[in-house]
Design goal:
The protein is mostly helical. It has four helices and no strands.
Length: 76
């Protein structure tokens, strides 16, 4: 398979992988502190977060930016 988007850090990463990695790195409390959305504050779970983020573009964008920031720090 050729890599058609070599400069896109989100290419090939599912939303579930992204949220899972963020949750493992920051925990639910850490995610809620960084991104003020209820799916990270009130009874958080991967499933409920995915459902919300798939319907809410502005929140998904914030989560994607946090993930990009996380992987940028790892590569530095």
């Amino acid at each position: 398979m050729s890599n058609t988007q070599p400069n896109n850090p989100l290419h090939g990463i599912t939303l579930e992988q992204l949220v899972t990695e963020l949750q493992q790195n920051y925990g639910w409390d850490g995610l809620a502190a960084r991104i003020n959305i209820n799916c990270f504050k009130s009874d958080p779970s991967i499933k409920s977060s995915l459902k919300f983020l798939r319907r809410t573009p502005w929140a998904r964008e914030q989560v994607e930016q946090l993930y990009i920031s996380l992987i940028s720090k790892r590569q530095a």
